[in-house]
Design a protein that fits this description.
By secondary structure, this protein is α+β, with helices and mostly antiparallel strands. It has one helix and two strands. The protein has one helix spanning 47-56, and strands at 36-38, 62-64.
């Protein structure tokens, strides 16, 4: 979508040879999440659950696209 052509996303790669490749690494992002955006194909029947999960992350702000 042209609406998103100027958006940026960040991806991180953790390189630590002492960790097993199949292991799980938990990276905290407290304070980094500003809002949750629900895409144009989001099933609105799941909105209540999405809001509940977002509030569990401390982020009650939502934007619905579509």
């Amino acid at each position: 979508m042209l609406d998103w052509e100027t958006d940026y996303e960040y991806r991180f790669v953790l390189l630590n040879p002492s960790l097993p490749l199949e292991g799980r690494v938990v990276v905290g992002f407290d304070g980094c999440l500003a809002a949750i955006i629900l895409g144009e194909r989001f099933d609105l029947r799941r909105l209540d659950n999405a809001i509940r999960l977002g509030r569990g992350l401390g982020r009650p702000s939502f934007a619905a696209i579509g």
